[in-house]
Specification:
Blueprint: H1 2-27, E1 31-39, H2 46-68, H3 73-85, E2 106-112, E3 118-124, H4 130-140, E4 145-147, H5 148-158, H6 171-179, E5 189-194, E6 200-206, E7 227-230, E8 234-240, H7 242-248, H8 250-261, H9 265-278, E9 283-289, E10 294-298, E11 302-309, E12 315-319
Parallel strand pairs: 3-4
Antiparallel strand pairs: 1-5, 1-11, 2-3, 2-6, 5-6, 7-8, 8-9, 9-10, 11-12
Helix pairs in contact: 2-3, 3-4, 8-9
Length: 322
């Protein structure tokens, strides 16, 4: 009699649990999209183009593995951006371009769509991986942004790796700033992710614009401008002429159009990039929504990007079609 009662109570309960697991496995999409900057990418030989694609592939693989193993969207975008910061080909971390006085000043930000919290650093020159420090700002302080020496002091305190500025030395980038004071390099790196639990996150990192004024801060560390994540809507990372992204709140605008105008992710992203174009700005945005839909829209000749979701196979492109 007692065993029968136990069966009556436990079997429906266990069936309910199994049903929940099966349901989550069936419907919860997840995925990642990354970018390595927008621009012309003109005059590049096949080997260089393949190097860009390889870098995007490495970042995508690192971040997607986190998601596939049940990790958080925050961990996924952090892992992906760290890979890109460590590759000298991209304008972030080790590959950062030079200011007008031939120094390097890096900016970065990260945002958690679940909590609405974000962290950022700006004007750092000794932090090996600015995105790692931006995340520490979000998780271990009451602030959103730290800059310059204050940020580097905090990095030392929390154990984020500092390096001598010579680590970022690049003869190619030095020659670029010395050769042309009108260089239009639009490099930035970023990632946006949806994890298996429905949480969104975005991260962006950059060395800024070649020949920028020392002390200049662009959109990359500004929540709403270069980075935005909002659960139930989307996560966005931008690349381009930062001043316009700041004026138009480009990253947040993608999600807000979805929220208030009921646009799809693609419709919203296209609308936002059209605003950039109408304003005379160049750039692009990558985004992923709460259902795992992917978007990569840009008005330049190219934007290095890659994406993969549970439902979409790995795709890596630089130009519009390849």
């Amino acid at each position: 009699m007692e065993r029968s009662i136990i069966k009556i109570i436990l079997i429906p309960f266990l069936s309910l649990l199994i049903g929940i697991v099966e349901s989550n496995d069936d419907v919860n999409n997840f995925g990642l999209i990354v970018h390595g900057g927008a621009g012309s990418f003109s005059g590049l030989d096949e080997n260089t183009l393949n190097s860009y694609k390889s870098g995007i592939d490495q970042a995508l693989a690192a971040g997607y593995e986190v998601l596939e193993q049940g990790g958080s969207s925050l961990d996924a975008v952090t892992s992906a951006v760290i890979i890109l910061e460590d590759l000298p080909l991209f304008n972030a971390g080790k590959g950062s371009v030079y200011t007008e006085i031939e120094t390097q000043e890096m900016d970065s930000s990260i945002m958690d769509g679940k909590s609405g919290k974000g962290g950022a650093v700006a004007g750092v020159s000794k932090v090996k991986n600015p995105i790692a420090l931006a995340r520490k700002v979000m998780e271990e302080t009451e602030h959103v942004m730290l800059i310059g020496k204050g940020a580097e002091k905090f990095a030392k305190k929390v154990g984020v790796e500092l390096v001598d500025p010579s680590y970022f030395y690049s003869e190619k980038n030095l020659n670029r700033v010395r050769k042309s004071k009108k260089d239009r390099k639009l490099g930035t790196v970023g990632a946006a992710a949806l994890d298996q639990y429905g949480n969104l996150a975005a991260a962006t990192s950059t060395g800024g614009r070649t020949n920028k004024m020392t002390g200049r801060v662009g959109d990359s560390p500004i929540l709403g401008a270069g980075t935005w994540a909002q659960n139930e809507l989307c996560a966005v990372s931008g690349t381009g002429h930062g001043e316009y992204f700041m004026r138009l709140l480009t990253a947040a605008d993608v999600c807000k159009l979805m929220e208030y105008s009921s646009l799809s992710l693609e419709e919203s992203a296209n609308s936002v990039v059209n605003k950039l174009t109408e304003s005379g700005a160049e750039g692009g945005i990558i985004s992923i929504d709460s259902h795992g839909n992917i978007s990569a829209v840009f008005n330049t000749k190219a934007m290095a990007r890659g994406y993969k979701t549970k439902e979409i196979s790995k795709t890596i492109k630089i130009y519009k079609d390849n």
